[in-house]
Design goal:
Helix 1 (16-31) runs parallel beside helix 6 (181-203). The protein has six helices and seven strands, in the order βαβααβαβββαβα. It is 43% helix and 20% strand. It has one domain (2-203): Flavodoxin domain (Rossmann fold). The radius of gyration is 18 Å and the shape is globular. 31% of the residues are buried. The chain is an alpha/beta fold. The protein has a five-stranded parallel beta sheet with strand order 2-1-3-6-7, sandwiched between helices. It has helices at 16-31, 52-55, 67-85, 102-111, 148-163, 181-203; strands at 2-7, 36-41, 88-94, 118-121, 124-127, 133-139, 168-174.
Length: 204
């Protein structure tokens, strides 16, 4: 099993989403001893956002790229190669200002490319990443389930993943993390219990 592990929190070791994505990866290892993991830290080592200069690398011959464009074109190729290689995506997605962190959005913009991860057909767009699984760890300081905020956060990610063909999406939530130590502890315990339950039957 090949796993692409994406963290996007800027909080480093203090991050709840990072702790939970690690638990998910550990759980995957309990059901498959041959797990190979590539990790992208989009929070503390973010990639560049899509800019006119970066966009211009797509479709431009390599010998016409400047040094910055050459570097970014190579990064785009690496990101797409990792995504194509992965059987499972583990995505840490804390809620920042009612949506996903900017580092995760930058990654999305760099890999959501017509002809690479989706294509347009006479019947409409078609995702090209079928057969993959995604496990999203969604954390938040408040509780927003079922609200427009949740649509902009988890709903956005599920829509995006579905657009590129990934429809097998499981969401692990830890909400209310900013509502006091007792609420935080319970939310984290519930999330860990959910993660454990995902893999117990599979490991049996």
């Amino acid at each position: 099993m090949n796993v692409l592990h994406l963290d996007s929190s800027i909080l480093g070791d203090a991050s709840a989403s990072r702790a939970l994505t690690r638990s998910v990866v550990d759980g995957l290892r309990t059901v498959d001893r041959q797990v190979n993991v590539v990790q992208r830290d989009l929070g503390t080592a973010p990639i560049a956002h899509l800019t006119p200069q970066v966009l211009a690398t797509r479709g431009t011959p390599a010998d016409l790229l400047n040094d910055v464009q050459d570097r970014e074109a190579r990064l785009d190729a690496d990101l797409l190669r990792e995504l194509d290689w992965a059987d499972v995506l583990v995505i840490g997605a804390p809620l920042y200002n009612f949506t996903i962190p900017t580092g995760l959005k930058a990654w999305i913009d760099r890999v959501t490319i017509a002809g690479k991860t989706f294509r347009y057909t006479a019947q409409g767009p078609e995702g090209l990443l079928k057969g993959k699984r995604a496990i999203v760890v969604a954390t938040s300081g408040g509780v927003h389930g079922g609200s427009p905020v949740d649509t902009m956060h988890v709903g956005y990610l599920k829509t995006l993943l579905g657009f590129v063909g990934i429809t097998d999406v499981e969401v692990i939530r830890a909400a209310g993390l900013g509502m006091g130590p007792e609420v935080r502890a319970q939310a984290m315990a519930d999330a860990r219990s959910r993660i454990d339950s995902m893999f117990v039957a599979a490991a049996a």
